[in-house]
Amino acid sequence: xxxxxxxxxxxxxxxxxxxxxxxxxxxxxxxxxxxxxxxxxxxxxxxxxxxxxxxxxxxxxxxxxxxxxxxxxxxxxxxxxxxxxxxxxxxxxxxxxxxxxxxxxxxxxxxxxxxxxxxxxxxxxxxxxxxxxxxxxxxxxxxxxxxxxxxxxxxxxxxxxxxxxxxxxxxxxxxxxxx
Length: 179
Fold this sequence. Notes:
The protein is mostly helical. It contains ten helices and no strands.
């Protein structure tokens, strides 16, 4: 049961992080915004073509999105090595969403050997940056004892931080825990 909960949680986080990366808005449409708009309109082939040159130029948000699109097979065939390549480049620049999504890859064993300690490390980096999805992921690790000693109090701490930012999964988890 817990495995299914955390797997569903990770899939939701993966989707949510893609959208949180697109929340940057300006008065004039920057290339990243145009790419994000194409993605939001489900024009994935166009979006990946727009994200690719931005990612190659070092744009961490574009790298994170490109990595996620390779991970999910959106606008391109699923390609774990390419996903990892772009997510690692973005994470190295401190992108919290990329760190969280790399953590999810390690948790799920997507393109890498399942590695709970590495997932925990990446979720913690994302969570400590204030990323609500990283916080919820880290909380789930503590709640279920994946890669760490089970610690409900620590899980509640991170779920509360995520819930304070409007994370619905964290809010539901807190209700289940009577918190």
